[in-house]
Amino acid sequence: RGVNEDIKKPRIYHPKEHGVKRSNISDGASKVMSTLGKAGYDAYLVGGGVRDLLLQRNPSDFDVATNATPQQISKIFKRSRLIGRRFKLVHVRACSEIVEVATFRRNPKSECNLGKRGIVFQDNDFGSIEEDAIRRDFTINALYLEFQSMNIVDYVGGMTDLADRVLRLLGNPKDRFSEDPVRILRAVRFSESFDFRMVGFSESQLRRYGRYLEHIPSARLFGEIGKLFLRGSGKQTFNSLRCFDLLRYVLPLTDSVLSSKNTARAERFVLQALSNTDQRVEEGETVTLAFLIAVFLWESMIKEKEKQSKLLGEDREAAVRAEDLVLHGQQHKMAIPRRITNLVREIWQLQNIFLNPSVRKAEKILKNRRFRAAYNFFFLRAESGEPLSDLIEWWTEFFDQTVESRKLYFSASRSYKKRTYRK
Ligand code: ATP
Ligand code: MG
User: Fold this and answer.
1) Residue identifier of the C-alpha nearest atom 16 of ligand 1
2) Backbone phi, then psi, for 414, in 5-degree steps?
3) Between the CA atoms of 152, 155, 161 and 163, what dihedral angle is there, to the nearest 10 degrees?
4) Helix (H) or strand (E) holding 46
5) Which residues have C-beta within 8 Å of that of residue 220, sequence separation ≥ 6?
6) Cβ(95)–Cβ(59) under 8 Å?
7) If 0-12 CB within 10 Å is exposed, 13-18 middle and 19+ buried, where does residue 423 land?
8) Which ligand 1 atom is at minimum distance from the Cα of 47?
């Protein structure tokens, strides 16, 4: 019995029925698809781009699928690069965008002749559009928008699932989650951010198969973290990950802090940071991963610092050692680039200045590019219940001063340290 027997005829939705317009698609993706079409190949917009346009959301990227092979694609586009371990994908530069162009392929596991040694990518892994549709993760991610006609081609019932607000897994949970455990995180992310009902898999299966996440490469896990927490539903996603006991695979240190005793303040701190981030996303403000990582690891860092202080005595040395240990502990799971860990350290280190305001230090902090992030972090600490409100008052007043009045303000509040809280 061949896999092809399972494949049904697609349902076609005309532009009038689905409402997506060509002008909704980015210039780069449009250019790539029309060029592929002119060269005689099929070209479709697929994945999150189609899904988000149908949901009237802003797509984060536009992916193109085609029957042209990577070699054929790179021949057509001069400004292109073969990507991936076995050159499965092509990145094409068009209209100052990078468009990911992928050849239709089938799920290697559906080929029974691979043996036990795992997935091997060969030329015969390329497939038809039908096969490409069923190897995707959820039905709502397997819709193909044909650029020429602007028809949506639906092999899996994704259009009705979108309308019914259903996140339906393609295939069976055990196989699909073990083949690629990142799908478990994607399941949580999509169900939370769209508020869709899980169908074809259950919460208890997410919990059960979560342990597969132990083995995913740290670079891939890093790729997911921004999508989980910086897309506007970070707080809910975080709560779900905890609820399904998945947080420990993503943020093990945070998970263990929040699983210990007396965690109310640490929890408020993390959740407040996430909801502030969601708010900023909604208002179109910039958000940074470094800030959140600094938040996620803060409590562990403080605990580690106390431990190291006992061992090393010297404060500064203990702090650096604690930062190293905690960041390494997280990086073991997740490949966080150095530019981000450097920022995390900076946010942490600047906390001392906010705790001990002085003329000299305050002048210095204003020149530091990171001071806003560091101050927001400090503010959040106060909000979550650390006794810092006097200091917040001081800094708020300080920021309100004009450059001229600042000096005066400083001399008036020079005696500050003596009368207020110091940690
Ligand atoms: P977003 O871009 O908003 O994060 P997306 O669904 O577009 O969401 P991408 O990582 O850009 O996510 O992937 C594009 C498409 O590739 C998906 O819509 C899905 O069809 C397919 N895909 C991605 N990851 C997987 C996976 N782990 N298993 C199966 N199919 C996947
Ligand atoms: Mg995408």
Assistant:
1) 47
2) -60, -35
3) 20
4) strand 43-46
5) 182
6) no
7) exposed
8) 18
Instruction: Decide if 209 contacts 175 (C-beta within 8 A).
Output: no
For residue 82, the tally of other CB atoms under 10 A from its CB is 14
Q: Would you put residue 79 in left (φ > 0), alpha (ψ -120 to 50) or beta? A: beta
Q: Tens of pLDDT along 83-126?
A: 877 768 999 999 999 999 999 998 875 444 444 444 444 556 88
Alpha-carbon gap, residue 177 to 210, rounded angstroms: 8
Name every residue whose Cβ is closer than 8 Å to that of residue 413 and which is 6 or more positions away in sequence. 357, 394
For ligand 1, residues with CB inside 6 Å are 47-48, 60-61, 63, 136-137, 141-142, 180, 182-183, 227
Instruction: State which amino acid sits at residue 343.
Output: L
Distance of alpha carbon 239 from alpha carbon 269, whole angstroms:
14
In the block, residue with structure tokens 């802090």: 257
pLDDT at position 411 is: 64
Residue 402 pLDDT grade (very low, low, confident, very high; cuts 50, 70, 90):
confident
Strand, coil or helix: 204: helix
pLDDT one-digit tens code per residue, 198-256: 999 999 999 999 999 998 999 999 999 999 999 999 999 999 999 999 999 999 999 99
Residue nearest to atom 15 of ligand 1 (CA): 47
Neighbour count for residue 267 (Cβ, 10 Å): 14
Separation of CA 335 from chain center: 13
In sequence order, which ranges of 93-211 are alpha helices (DSSP H)? 129-134, 158-164, 173-179, 182-194, 203-209
146 C-alpha to center of ligand 2: Å?
17
| Percent of the chain whose predicted confidence (pLDDT) is above 70 | 89
Q: Which secondary-structure segment (H or E) carries 167?
A: strand 166-168
Taking the centre of ligand 1 as the mean of its atom positions, its distance from the CA of residue 141, in whole angstroms, is 7
Contact 249, 285 (CB under 8 A): no
d(CA 90, CA 74): 7
Q: Specify burial of residue 291 (Cβ count, 10 A radius: 0-12, 13-18, 19+).
A: buried
